[in-house]
Amino acid sequence: xxxxxxxxxxxxxxxxxxxxTALVTxxxxxxxxxxxxxxxxxxxxxxxxxxxxxxxGWKRGGFAAGVGSMMADLFAGYANWAPWTLVIKLVMxxxxxICIELARRNKKNIAGISLATAASWMGFNFILGxxxxxxxxxxxxxxxxxxxxASVDALPxxxxxxQSQIMAGAxxxxxxxxxxxxxxxxxxxxxxxxxxxxxxxFAGLWMVFAYxxxxxxxxxxxxxxxxxxxxNMVQFLLGFVIAMIIYSALMRTxxxxxxxxxx
Length: 263
Fold this sequence. Notes:
globular
């Protein structure tokens, strides 16, 4: 390859990295829905993070994910979340990209990634249930105030609802993602490999878990931080759906050749 072609390729990659960093920021700020309990918000930025990894790979995609998401926090007035977001979103992209690379290298790795994802979901839900129950017994008044409830009497029903939502998410998210892929196959004749779906799921799990930890540290209450988990699950699902719609559409255009990971 000539020097001019190498230079052109590097320039194109640099431009695409800058473009995706900006798109992550824009998508994150486009629709910000405040989340109760932790002072954070849910958004559509995860969709561009997923696209960034598919387009650029996990290294440059991680840069776009971390820096783009951090900039959105800074611009929108969530500076206290910015350092956490930089790390969480960067690692989210890295997890997705590395899982995809492992699966493409050896199909047997898909089973391992799937088992790790399922075990992580189950373990996370078990831990959350224990933390919430312990806090409800030791400090019901503080937990009720953190949940913005009118009285302690409403706490049992509220906790039960949150735990049900988290458990339903753990059980239904993988099924939803597979059904979404089947729908796109039938509707648009676009087949999304199962390893991409699993990799996105594992990355989404990391995002939910990491923001739970960050919220618990920032607000010194891990039980209250657990109440934001269902919201982050919704954010991940929206990001997946939007990313797959965009990805499937671009796979039908000349832009397909730009993607590091294509169908």
